[in-house]
Amino acid sequence: MKKAISMLCLIITVGNKVFSAKFYDNQTTQALVKQFPLTVDMSELNGNEKYYYLSNTLPTASEQLGKIHAGDIMLYGDGYLVVFYETFSSSYNYTRLGYIEDAVSFVQVVGDGNIKFTFDLVKHEKT
Q1: Do residues 85 and 48 make contact, with C-beta atoms less than 8 angstroms apart?
Q2: Burial group, residue 115, by CB count within 10 angstroms (0-12, 13-18, 19+)
Q3: Backbone angles phi, psi at 13, to 5 degrees
Q4: CATH class for domain 7-121?
Q5: Beta-sheet strands, E only, within the chain
Q6: Could you tell me the maximum CA-CA distance found in the chain, to the nearest angstrom?
Q7: pTM score over 0.85
Q8: For the Cyclophilin-like domain, which residue ranges apply (predicted)?
Q9: Whether the bond into 59 is cis, omega within 30 of 0
Q10: Over the stretch 27-81, which tens digit does the pLDDT of each residue have?
Q11: How far apart are CA 64 and CA 80, in angstroms?
């Protein structure tokens, strides 16, 4: 029987727009969410991604993915948080972190310059 993939729910604010996102529940994301809420100025790179160099390194499980999709959230190396806004083929290795659920709206908001991102976990009310 195949094990279900556990996901963490996030809210990502880009500029003044809020997006829902999912993170894979793994060693890398667990280390990253300990830094949340995290507000960073992400820099433009290559006309297809925004990146931020984290002050702490994270554990990695990098793999060559072949295809990157708009809305994918990845870790490059052990310290570059990357969010993609174009779909393209790539030979680079990344650690998968998660994805923005409404990639179409995200692409329309992100633009081609540097932009502020805030990452935070969704807070669930206890009943």
Answers
A1: yes
A2: middle
A3: -100, 125
A4: mainly beta
A5: 7-14, 17-24, 38-45, 49-53, 63-68, 72-76, 80-84, 88-100, 115-121
A6: 47
A7: yes
A8: 12-119
A9: no
A10: 999 999 999 999 999 999 999 999 999 999 999 999 998 999 999 999 999 999 9
A11: 16
